[in-house]
Amino acid sequence: NAGVMQNPRHLVRRRGQEARLRCSPMKGHSHVYWYRQLPEEGLKFMVYLQKENIIDESGMPKERFSAEFPKEGPSILRIQQVVRGDSAAYFCASSLDQVRDNSPLHFGNGTRLTVT
Amino acid sequence: GESVGLHLPTLSVQEGDNSIINCAYSNSASDYFIWYKQESGKGPQFIIDIRSNMDKRQGQRVTVLLNKTVKHLSLQIAATQPGDSAVYFCAENIPPLKTSYDKVIFGPGTSLSVIP
To answer: A23 to each of A8, A32, A61, B91, how far by Cα in Å?
Structure first.
């Protein structure tokens, strides 16, 4: 059973370009979460999605950032007009059910975004 | 609250000794807790979880202790090995008050270094 798959592993963008980060959850998982991590720091929640729905986007900047989890295909985190401060590791996690039902998050290995 | 930007606390232990990693969680209503291990360049990996109606849970070489009175969680690793060197995060699940969904918040992490 494949784990959470994220691609690309590394992404380099120039300021002003767009970054698209992809996440395929574990098989059977319909809950997807995106977290951001700066070097030597913890994971900061960005957004929680279920199929075709954004459930909680309270941690995601309102401008330039968007996320989707379509009925078919991977979840996408999109960052428009990237700036140097967007450089970070972005982790996707999935869960089978809601976390309260003893359903822990399983993480991918992240996408490391570098903005030059 | 949310994980904030802090330099990681570090813990150095001798190979073969026991390790204790501590975590203070934020919300007295949190009902489910998870410990993750993150190795360099990888995503967080699930280690062990515990519900709030328990105060202790054991796994293979790991034990999690929960003290709800002081909102404290600890991870004990028996006979620490070089492969245990990593950053360890605790996570708490905050059940919904006004919404219908949970929120998983991560602590700042502790870097464990095992001395051979």
So the answer is: 9, 9, 19, 21
Contact A25, A76 (CB under 8 A): no
Please report, as a single letter, which amino acid is at residue A26.
Answer: M
Chain B contact present for A42, CB below 8 A: yes
For residue B5, pLDDT beyond 70: no
Of the candidates A40, A45, A93, which has its C-beta nearest B105's C-beta? A45
CB contacts of A91 in chain B (<8 Å) are 43-44
Q: Which residues of B51-71 are buried (b: 16+ CB within 10 A; e: fewer)?
A: ebeeeeeeeeebbbbbeeeee
A97 touches chain B (CB under 8 A): no
Phi/psi at A85 (5° precision): -65, -10
pLDDT tens by residue, A78-91: 999 999 999 999 99
Residue entry with tokens 């949190």: B30
What number of helices (H) and strands (E) belong to chain B? 0, 10
Instruction: Give tens-digit pLDDT for B67-114.
Output: 999 999 999 999 999 999 999 999 999 887 666 778 888 988 999 999
For residue B19, the cross-strand partners are B77
Contact A2, A26 (CB under 8 A): yes
d(CA A109, CA A3): 10
Eight-class DSSP state of B109:
-
pLDDT > 90? residue A39: no
User: What sign results for the dihedral spanned by CA atoms B46, A27, A68, A116?
Assistant: positive
